[in-house]
Amino acid sequence: MEHFSKPYTYAVWTKDSDVRFKSTSGGAFTEFAKKIIDNDGYVVGAQYDKDNLVEHVMVSDYDGIERIRQSKYIQSRIGNVYCEIKDKLNQDKLVGFCGSPCQVAGLYAYLGKDYDNLITMDFICRGMNSPKAYKAWLNEIEKKEKSKATRVWFKYKEGGWKSSPRRTRVDFADGHFKVYEAEKNLFMYGYLSSNLYIRPSCGKCAFKGVPRQGDITFADFWGIDEKYDDDKGTSLLLINSDKGNKLFSLIKDRFEAHEMDFNSIFEGNPMFSESVKVPAEASAFLKDLDYMSFSDCLKKYHGYPKKNLFILRILRKVKRTIINR
Ligand SMILES: Cc1cc2nc3c(=O)[nH]c(=O)nc-3n(C[C@H](O)[C@H](O)[C@H](O)COP(=O)(O)OP(=O)(O)OC[C@H]3O[C@@H](n4cnc5c(N)ncnc54)[C@H](O)[C@@H]3O)c2cc1C
User: Fold this and answer.
1) What would be one Pfam family of this protein (predicted)?
2) I need a surface site. Which of 12, 115, 222, 249 has the fewest CB within 10 A?
């Protein structure tokens, strides 16, 4: 398994506008997944279970791809999926696995060797959130809305891709849905600004930078030149191996694809090479969730979002005034 120290780098988005809208960045994952299924293969990714928690499953048709599409910002349960993958590989079936870099590393460790019929896909990862914190947030919302959540759609793109990290849509069993934005989008606000419920191990991630774990890496191409950004989602695609390159060459025409300089990715996406800083209070935060609501806990350990956003806005205004002088 030879992975490149300088991956081929592309800005891409799928030409299928529906898939692009329903994907987290440019829909790159879905096009790779479809090609694998078209070749009688199996794709493994993360879906919501009946309790809105996340689990890795193996799928073999396009409906299955719909379920595993989209980023879910919570740690998924791997369950028995590594075993299932090994079985299919030994039956000479083509298998695509998509997960965090540490999950891809876990798969290789379990298999003990690389297989020609295995394609691994990872993503640039800020860090995995605790399912306990996520459930506490969702329970609070469900109580307020007096209905069970049926679907959580992180980074909902209605209103634009670049602002999508601030926007989460939740659908409810009684038929209504709500879009939580900015300071009302508490879970993503806390994820992106406090790191309080990111797994402690993510603070010392062993799988940053290059060589990548996966044959292919997906990410949001934050900081991409305006000419490749129509605010509908641009994927950063890294091709990390000959295997990945071969597969990409077979589906390149499904994308709007532009080759980029590898060095252009670092500024917009520091998480490519850096781990987040998980604060010392993270474990106290999680313990307090046993008897406090998510919003009270976040307020206790991180401050009230409105206040922080207000201060941020003032700081940005001051910065703009200084720059424009
Ligand atoms: C926890 C997390 C943190 C991320 N951090 C960053 C970041 O800092 N910077 C950045 O540019 N991109 C980050 N990403 C990746 C980004 O959100 C997109 O997933 C990526 O750009 C692929 O988008 P897409 O449109 O090609 O496909 P999508 O359809 O969005 O593909 C998502 C793929 O990821 C898998 N997946 C979804 N949720 C999980 C999960 N919880 N665990 C394991 N696999 C999962 C799905 O099964 C699917 O294969 C992160 C993703 C996750 C899940």
Assistant:
1) FrhB_FdhB_C
2) 249
Give pLDDT tens digits for 55-113. Answer: 999 999 999 999 999 999 999 999 999 999 999 999 999 999 999 999 999 999 999 99
Dist CA 72 CA 264 (whole Å): 26
Mutate to test the pocket of ligand 1, among 15, 82, 119, 123 (most ligand atoms within 8 A of CB): 123
Distance 175 CA to ligand 1 centre (A): 27
**Exposed/middle/buried for residue 311 (C-beta within 10 Å: 0-12, 13-18, 19+):** exposed
Which residues partner with 198 through β-bridges? 129
| pLDDT tens profile 129-161 | 999 999 999 999 999 999 999 999 999 999 999
- Ligand 1 proximity of 235 Cβ (cutoff 6 Å): yes
- Is residue 29 in contact with ligand 1, taking CB distance under 6 Å? yes
Cβ of residue 44 lying under 6 Å from some atom of ligand 1: no
